[in-house]
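Quick one: structure tokens for this chain, please?
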Amino acid sequence: MTELRQTANCYDMLHQLKYYECTDTGHPSLSMLMSMLTMVSDAHSIFMGLDRQKVEQSGGAWVVISYEGHLSTKQPRYGDQVILGTRATASNAFFALREFWMDDLHHHHYAHIKALFVMMNLQKRRLMKIPDELLAPFESPVQKRLDKPKKPGKLSGDFTSQQYRVRYYDIDVNHHVNNARYFDWLTDPLGATFLRQHQPVAFTIQYQNEVQENATVESRLARIQDDGTTTSRHEIWSGGECCTSAEITWTPVNND
């Protein structure tokens, strides 16, 4: 029987991959993987008695500002059962670091991801100090300097671009574009042929500015080829400013 850890600091849950979480390769998409991380993070908070209503009483909401992830070349398929997990790694007055994983039933990583959270004041739409009552229950070490996710490389030189309109259904309960949605905008310009033939093995993403409802975003892309792997660098622009930057390393699809 699979052992699941469910403590103040660490939380595992079982999840069976749904058809809509996977691309036509049969493997989970990056955007759906991000949605699964949100799901296990929410489950951990509820387990600790910190549901959405409790968090909103603080006047704020948790927001991810950066991710760094590493993925195995062996990925699960539609219908497989996986372990989704999270751990509160470290925190200070304004930042909280969490790690996430998607594992097989023997706790071998399919994906391991580091995420940096802040608390956003929902009225003023700016950062606020994280209330102690939202941090202390998770028993994460308090550290002045956190081991934050790596920053993406800069997009320079020639790039291609594609535009998208922010739709109503891109906006989540926190009244901003859902973080997972950016991965669709970032990767779509690579094209269906490339995405069917390649899989991500590493990525970093940094969210810098909010994208507003009804805005038009421009997804910029540049590729760097290197010994069997491809690195793609990406930026999302809206209203004349860079809102999100990312870097993804790809390798040919493993069909084993």
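Residues 55 and 61 are 6 Å apart (CA to CA).
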